[in-house]
Automatic annotation (TrEMBL), chains A, B, C, D:
Chain's role: Catalyzes the phosphorylation of D-fructose 6-phosphate to fructose 1,6-bisphosphate by ATP, the first committing step of glycolysis.
Residues of the Phosphofructokinase domain: 3-279
Protein name: ATP-dependent 6-phosphofructokinase
InterPro entries: ATP_PFK (IPR022953), ATP_PFK_prok-type (IPR012003), PFKA_ATP_prok (IPR012828), Phosphofructokinase_CS (IPR015912), Phosphofructokinase_dom (IPR000023), PKF_sf (IPR035966)
Gene symbol of the encoding locus: pfkA
Binding site for Mg(2+): 103
Subunit composition and interactions: Homotetramer.
Length: 332, 332, 332, 332
């Protein structure tokens, strides 16, 4: 193995740069060259690759986003597109490909591997943490901390004005960001795709909380909970409860994707980046490198894209016991 | 002067607690007692006052929100309400009232002073910085820094995906947060109530920026710009530009109100809080204490609520020259 | 079980308050009262206990330090002291004691349990992460992030002035903070108690790094590395290398102990706090509740205080491969 | 005027990059080319200049440090050195020089201007804020906020352990960082070069604070206070007070220099950078561009380096009244 290529694809996540750096320096340690592909699969098709050396990845471990940029590639969904990508890789004498991204990225990779038997290793880079085969994905810890900082700030206002806030966090298919930021932010309720709660129930609980004393409350809503955006859910509650419950809405949005990666994410990204290179060296392919019980583990890409990773029952129970009880001053 | 009362009213702002602390400790220094009124004018009417001492305000200088809480008070808009407030103050032998808040707070104060000739001093506490009679309001610097941190994070994604983001910041009547966070965040455009730009013009400029090279851009929109929310403005642009310009929208919302106050806001709040107490001692009333050219200044409350404070031409020019030019890679 | 007591002891750690909150609310859920003991074992001897309810622990999940305060207690090292503590607990009809702290705290607890057969459960609260029986201790993640933020800042200066910085981080007996902050901060070298490197070797490596191009470097030194403080180590290197290597020294010190706890630490503290209460309920005692492979685990207190937890070889290898290589511009 | 050069010199300060960006883009707006000189005066002598364009300064407004690097230049203190610098500038057809730095930088500039009559404008870039001719220097606001964040963190521990902390902040010749971070951090005492307090007095006040109730305290010491480092001062106090007062020491050190610049510093740097370019265009030279009462002002370089800027009496009074009183719980 003399040359590998690396790309980032899908939504950017804090720590992707730390991972690129680890791939490049890990490869350099083993005497392997690295070509960085710009703009994901789209750049692979266009042949937009640049040589990366240990010094070109200096001083990026602390940067959010991805220096290789990311983009959608409708063309990679076609056989012709994938053929061009394969041709580029073989022309450049690339022996293995490392793709950093999420579920969509890995589905594309899987198809590519199946067609061309090209060695590919996936690295889980997505703030959503919804990938089977790893306890944590790159960017998740930073996104949770960003959400928690936002909740802390909003709590100042919720408490000062004794209001109820509904805060929407990211997570199209999973409630990972919601559950962790909800627990850490001391949110009174967390609304997840994984656990249904009707508007009627919710109103009943909010009313109970308000009994005895006026108080504030923070509800965290996962983007993919099912009933729609926070604005829609708030309208529904306001409508059903009469004017009694006046919810304010905040949608955290894209601030969750960016920012300086946390220590956790930098270390995770470093471990997985090196693990990807050394996985290729050991002949592994069509796998994702992940961290399970603090050990590097290689899972089949097929399994990764098809199996779901449920939220732990213990965490769901924590919210109910620690945050959700009705007590005089419901703050935090 | 033996006893003063202090309250916070209107939207909460980071630094209000630092100001309460300064009022209490400044008063203590002069041998004056302080009664803290809970929930703004509403608490004044209900007689919800608590004694504040130097030690009760320990360890709050760094807290966001307001320990005295804030609330709307429709009753204070009635003569009966204000009469009750006056009765409470005289019953408790209060010699002067310090109100920390924004334009609405001061309008209420003005009516109260005119009817009862009660000594009142206002302290500008609002993130919007839209008050005449002070260069800066308490909470403004923190809000701008919060907005800039958010812009920095979103830029990571804008750059990685080469997208255009429209970020809505607070400022119902003024573009102060927008202009400062726009300059500091390196935003390519700032859309303000103070300066109109048509959708057609905007599209034309965005197209120019895109020419030559694909690139990202950040547009900062002041809440009160005039055309509606960021979502509305983005739809308008997308519609008029065809599918060409695909804007992403983020509304920062309530995270701008909360959070640990910046050093600037803590110092400003400390100076103004002490200034309010010493203003009352010197017989000043029906005034707002502000900071103009780094000096404490007392302006008539009437002037404060009626005059506007325009955004400096120099700052508007800075955005055009430093951020708005069309250059290859438009980042930052 | 009707009543438990909780105390914090030893150096404070971010997340201790989140843990107290979890103990109180977890106990409330099971119908158990909680007495908070102020100032650790010292308060236990003096009988300085206060009742804690769900609402008294509102709004503390995000606060650094410990609302129960901490103190040294030489008296608890005497039989008489421990007898008084026991008398207080029995007088107040306390059925179990939860102690949040580190190695010293647990040694005290062990002696107490052995003498009085009183049910005690320990919770690992220390920034040092040096306790056997848990993968992570409360406060560790926050301390690492604080150290990394500091390293990021110092790198700005190191790079601008092309200097070498030696940064001392906490860890009297272990290099946990050093290794993680070193990897995440992109430090060129990490000096640990666990791995010796002579001054001569270090100088040789620093010289190699400097060859070819002027460059900056960051060295992270664990407090307990063995040769003394950063100032001592820097003097040693300067002396042996002639004037050639001009190291600047920064000792992070107590900023590593405080601050808003990270999301990780809040969640860990919440899980362990509830786990401690439910452990007592299940009859467990003389144990520490920890998190091993993301599962709650109860280990014998004896084992906890006597066994060491070595730093993973994988992490040590990461520093060498990713950070330590000699490359043109050594930044990050 | 067709071409200007810009350099950074002296200690790096957050916002220097924002200033370089403003110089480059401001020049571009006026059709002027910019040469960036690397490593301060040293690079000027060696002819180490690179062309800077609007796109080369993209995405640096938020970065700490200086992309042009900084260095000491003993050679620039010689006539021969300055002659080489002049030759380089004339060979490259440079019409004006902008130097971003502090007092030492300006002294060098002054000598250069006097000898060669070359148009030079200084921009105040130093965290110390000790320059006459400007209310604020670039980097000062960020440094104060960094110091305040550190004080907030240390207060968690001071309060939890009821200890006294002595925190040393930067400021070799002035107490600006100390006074502002002391007020904003709620420090009980601020020890400045500008105001002497004997160890005996200090001990007496600390004892008074301790009377009645055990309590914590934060003392902020300016580096240049006069008695030596924080360690020296603490030893002196411990020695004179017997074992009674057990001060802990933290020296913030280089973390104060780096980091993401605050909104204030980015805006200040942007205004001054543009102001420097437009000053040269208007024929100004041998001046420093500063901000006085929120207006751009050009002061003579000679005045800037020779006059001192005293700390406002109002701020000194604030510390005494708001922080220094003896009250039960002295926290914050």
């Amino acid at each position: 193995m003399k040359r590998v290529a690396v790309l980032t694809s899908g939504g950017d996540a804090p720590g992707m740069n730390a991972c690129i750096r680890a791939v490049v320096r890990g490869a350099a340690y083993h005497g392997i060259e690295v070509i960085g592909i710009r703009r994901g699969y789209s750049g692979l098709i266009l042949g937009d690759g640049i040589q990366l050396t240990s010094s070109t990845v200096s001083n990026i471990i602390q940067r959010g986003g991805t220096i290789l940029k990311s983009a959608r590639s409708p063309e990679f969904r076609t056989v012709e597109g994938r053929q061009k990508a394969y041709d580029y890789l073989t022309n450049r004498a690339v022996d293995g490909l490392i793709v950093i991204g999420g579920n969509g990225t890995f589905k594309g990779a899987l198809q590519f591997v199946d067609e061309f038997s090209f060695p590919v290793i996936g690295v889980p880079g997505t703030i959503d943490n919804d990938l089977f085969g790893t306890d944590y994905t790159i960017g998740y810890d930073t996104a949770v901390n960003t959400a928690v900082e936002a909740i802390d700030k909003i709590r100042d206002t919720a408490d000062s004005h004794e209001r109820i806030f509904l805060i929407e966090v990211m997570g199209r298919d999973s409630g990972y960001i919601a559950i962790q930021s909800g627990i850490a932010g001391g949110a009174e309720r967390v609304l997840l795709p994984e656990t249904g709660v009707s508007a009627a129930e919710l109103i009943e609980r909010l009313r109970q909380d308000r009994n005895g004393s006026q108080s504030s409350a923070i509800l965290v809503l996962a983007e993919g909970e099912g009933r729609g955006t926070a604005t829609v859910v708030a309208e529904q509650i306001k409508k059903q409860s009469g004017t009694e419950l006046d919810l304010r809405v905040t949608t955290l949005g894209h601030i969750q994707r960016g920012g300086v990666p946390s220590a956790c994410d930098r270390i995770l990204a470093s471990r997985l980046g090196l693990g990807a290179v050394e996985g290729l060296l050991k002949g592994k392919q069509k796998v994702m490198v992940g961290l399970v019980n603090n050990e590097l583990v290689y899972s089949g890409l097929q399994e990764t894209v098809s199996r779901s990773k449920p939220i732990s029952e213990e965490l769901l129970r924590l919210v109910t016991i620690l945050n959700g009880s009705a007590f005089a001053d419901s703050r935090g």
